[in-house]
Amino acid sequence: MGMLVEGKWHDVWYDTSGSKGRFIREDAQFRNWITVDGSAGDSGEAGFKAESGRYHLCVSLACPWAHRTLMMRSLKGLEAHISVSVVSPIMLEHGWTYHRDEGSSGDPLHNAEFHHQIYTAAQEDYSGRVTVPVLWDKEQNTIVSNESSEIIRMLNEAFNGITGNQDDYYPVALRDQIKQWNDRIYPAINNGVYRAGFATTQGAYEEAYRTLFDALDDIDAHLGSHRYLTGERVTEADIRLFTTLIRFDAIYHGHFKCNRQRLEDYDHIPGYIRDIYQLPGVADTVDFDHIKTHYYASHRMINPTGVVPLGPDIDYARPHGRERLIAA
Ligand SMILES: N[C@@H](CCC(=O)N[C@@H](CS)C(=O)NCC(=O)O)C(=O)O
């Protein structure tokens, strides 16, 4: 774990000393947009036009933020149009790497050994965290975006003319509802599990834990009468929630101390997880080997031995029974 300072790699863990032990996630810095016609917006920088074969995603199969982009790529039928490389699940003093012997696909873009080389290839003097996902433009040789919430919106709408896939996970009529869910779920759940797991004081941990389970309780109750968060159709809010939920019992419950209960012990959340898991193509984006190896073997500050637990043994392919909520 580390970061770049003016293009040079430094091996440092998250600094919580100025925030009373609270983990604060840094904002992503590359925030450009792919559009249908490549229009650059008002700021005048070069635009990014949706084209088949031009863009590439660098992901970790372990990372819930990167997982959003893989899910959207799959649901929108973009596999043949946007290529992917996968980092090693083990992230230690060099940050994310492309070590093939540890399960990485290698880096087809620059044959880089380290993911931070992708950042300095885009911007020589980059300062900041070196995260996945990264959406890379092979034409301009630069990073379009390293913010998953924005990448999934681009994948949802910019490539429809190329794929013919018109499925809309961010429909205009549901945007207010989606925003309300995202605004609650991001701090309390997506980032909430990290706030619990990376807290370095008892108070910071307890605050995150309570907020997390309050939100999960509310969602479980909501899902008792709604198949998906906004009702009858899957939206980006479900995709964003799913990537945290699918990791919860295997990782966050133990490793991040989110252990009031397992998600499997809720009434409605387990069926909801399986419902999304069983959407076409989604199961193929879930890799528990990478997920478990990454968290348990990389966060040596939390798990110094790096030993990876064998359980839990949960069958996400078993029937979910949630079709009944559509007719209700
Ligand atoms: N806001 C970013 C966050 C991405 C992120 O934090 N990814 C984690 C992996 S789960 C990462 O790469 N962390 C490395 C680091 O912080 O040094 C997004 O949603 O894309």
Automatic annotation (TrEMBL):
PROSITE patterns: GST_CTER. SUPFAM superfamilies: GST C-terminal domain-like, Thioredoxin-like. One of its GO terms (molecular function) is glutathione transferase activity. InterPro entries: Glutathione-S-Trfase_C-like, Glutathione-S-Trfase_C_sf, Glutathione_S-Trfase, Glutathione_S-Trfase_N, GST_Omega-like_C, GST_Omega/GSH, Thioredoxin-like_sf. The record marks 252, 295 as: Lowers pKa of active site Cys. Glutathione binds at residues 96, 129-132, 147-148. Residues 171-295 form the GST C-terminal domain. Gene3D superfamilies: 1.20.1050.10, Glutaredoxin. The active site is at residues 63, 194. GO terms for cellular component: cytoplasm. This is Glutathione-dependent reductase.
